[in-house]
C-alpha cells in the first residue's frame, strides 16, 4: 500500500484542515430530486445528474414497486443465462422506440456499456481514437480490449483528422466521441468531427450521450440528434444514471449484426443483469422522456440562469455561454475548490 501513501496523506491533510469527509456526508433523507437532508439540514442538490427529476416520478416509482412484487429483488444471473426477464426486453424495446434504432442492449451501468462496447469492437491490433478529455470508462474500455489508444486534443477537428491520417489505412479505427463533455459542460462539434472521420477508411463512430440524453434534440436522443448526424453514428452509448433517474447503461445501433454482441461482449456476458425493479423504472422513465419537452425547456432555462448568475458574480466558467446542463466553475487550485465545497455545504448547497 506504499503507492497509496500520497493519497492517504492528501486526504488526512484535508480532513485536518476541517473539511468534511466526503464519505461521511450522507443524505439522511431525500425530500425531492432537488432537496435532501444532510447533517440534519435541508440541502439543495446542485451536483446530481438528475436532469429531468425522474427519481421521484410517481409512475416510475409505481412501476418499480410492481416489479419488485411480481419478479422479486434480483435476477441472480447474467443475461445470457437466467438473467433475461420480461423487464429487460421491455426496457430494450423502450430504448429502440426512444432512439429509433433496430438494436438496443442493456448493461448493468453506463461504465460497463463503454467498457463492453469499446473492448469488444476494438481489440489487439485495432485503434481507438479518442478525445483527450474522454470519460474514464472509455479509457478503461481501451485497456480491456488491448487496442492501441490514439488521443486527439479536446474537441479539435484538425487534430482528429491529422491523427487518423497517420494510422494504417487497412487497420480498424473506432472513433469515440461524447456529445457533452462532463468536466467543462461543453458540446462536441459532431458534424465537423464526423466529416473528418469519414475522410479516412475503416472507421466506426461511437458517441457517448450520457449527458445529452433527455436534453438535446427534438426527441431528446442527444447532441448527435440535435446536430443532425444520426445517420453517421454507428453506436450510441448511454446511461440510466442521469436523465433516466435510476441505474444502468446501454448501447443502441442500427448495425445489422448488432445482436451477436450479446454473445461476445464480456462485460455483458459475465455479470448479473439489472434487478427487475430497476429495468421497470428505467423503461417507464424512458417512455415518459419521449414527451418531456416541457422539462427540457425548464432545464435549459435553469442552466442559462445559473450560468448568467455565476458569470455576473465574476466566476470563470467552463464555457463562455451555457452549452449544456453542466455549468462548471473553474477555481485556481484544489485547496480553493475544497474550501468552496465546504462553505457551500454549510450554506445548504451540495
Ligand atoms: N460516460 C460518461 C460521459 C459519464 O459522465 C458517465 C458517468 N458520469 C458514464 C459514462 C458512466 O455512467 P454510469 O454512472 O451509468 O456508470
What does the model show?
With 350 residues, this protein is α/β, with parallel strands linked by helices. It has helices at 5-16, 58-71, 86-99, 110-121, 136-145, 157-165, 190-197, 223-226, 261-264, 266-269, 276-289, 293-312, 334-346; strands spanning 27-32, 35-38, 41-44, 103-107, 127-131, 148-152, 173-178, 203-208, 235-239, 249-253. The strands form two sheets. Strands 4-10-9-8-7-5-6 form a seven-stranded mixed sheet, with helices on both faces. The mean pLDDT is 96. It binds 4'-deoxy-4'-aminopyridoxal-5'-phosphate. 4'-deoxy-4'-aminopyridoxal-5'-phosphate is lined by residues 109-111, 114, 135, 137, 178, 182, 208, 210, 239, 241, 249. Residues 109-111, 114, 135, 137, 178, 182, 208, 210, 239, 241, 249 line the site of 4'-deoxy-4'-aminopyridoxal-5'-phosphate.
Concise synopsis of the structure shown:
With 350 residues, this protein is an alpha/beta fold. The chain is built from 13 helices and ten strands. The structure holds 4'-deoxy-4'-aminopyridoxal-5'-phosphate.
Amino acid at each position: 500500500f506504499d503507492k497509496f501513501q500520497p493519497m492517504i496523506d492528501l486526504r488526512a491533510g484535508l480532513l485536518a484542515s476541517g473539511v468534511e469527509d466526503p464519505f461521511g456526508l450522507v443524505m439522511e433523507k431525500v425530500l425531492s430530486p432537488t432537496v435532501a437532508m444532510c447533517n440534519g439540514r435541508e440541502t439543495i442538490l446542485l451536483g446530481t445528474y438528475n436532469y429531468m427529476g425522474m427519481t421521484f416520478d410517481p409512475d416510475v416509482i409505481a412501476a418499480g414497486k410492481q416489479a419488485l412484487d411480481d419478479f422479486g429483488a434480483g435476477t441472480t444471473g447474467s443475461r445470457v443465462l437466467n438473467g433475461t426477464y420480461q423487464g429487460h426486453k421491455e426496457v430494450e424495446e423502450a430504448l429502440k422506440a426512444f432512439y429509433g434504432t433496430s438494436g438496443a442492449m442493456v448493461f448493468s451501468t453506463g461504465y460497463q456499456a463503454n467498457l463492453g462496447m469499446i473492448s469488444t469492437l476494438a481489440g489487439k491490433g485495432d485503434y481507438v481514437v479518442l478525445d483527450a478529455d474522454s470519460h474514464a470508462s472509455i479509457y478503461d474500455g481501451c485497456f480491456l480490449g488491448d487496442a492501441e489508444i490514439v488521443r486527439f486534443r479536446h474537441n479539435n477537428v484538425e487534430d482528429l483528422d491529422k491523427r487518423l491520417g497517420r494510422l494504417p489505412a487497412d487497420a480498424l479505427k473506432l472513433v469515440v466521441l461524447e456529445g457533452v463533455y462532463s468536466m467543462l459542460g461543453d458540446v462536441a462539434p459532431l458534424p465537423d468531427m464526423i466529416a473528418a472521420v469519414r475522410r479516412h477508411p475503416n472507421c466506426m463512430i461511437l458517441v457517448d450521450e450520457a449527458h445529452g440524453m433527455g436534453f438535446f434534440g427534438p426527441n431528446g436522443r442527444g447532441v448527435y440528434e440535435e446536430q443532425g448526424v444520426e445517420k453517421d453514428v454507428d453506436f450510441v452509448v448511454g446511461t440510466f444514471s442521469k436523465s433516466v433517474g435510476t441505474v444502468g447503461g446501454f448501447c443502441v445501433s442500427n448495425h445489422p449484426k448488432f445482436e451477436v454482441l450479446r454473445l461476445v461482449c464480456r462485460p455483458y456476458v459475465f455479470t448479473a443483469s439489472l434487478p427487475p425493479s430497476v429495468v421497470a423504472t428505467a423503461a417507464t422513465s424512458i417512455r415518459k422522456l419521449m414527451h418531456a419537452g416541457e422539462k427540457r425547456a425548464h432545464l435549459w432555462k435553469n442552466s442559462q440562469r445559473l450560468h448568467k448568475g455565476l458569470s455576473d458574480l465574476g466566476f470563470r466558467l467552463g464555457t463562455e455561454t451555457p452549452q449544456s446542463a453542466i455549468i462548471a466553475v473553474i477555481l485556481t487550485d484544489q485547496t480553493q475548490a475544497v474550501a468552496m465545497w465546504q462553505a457551500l455545504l454549510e450554506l445548504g448547497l451540495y
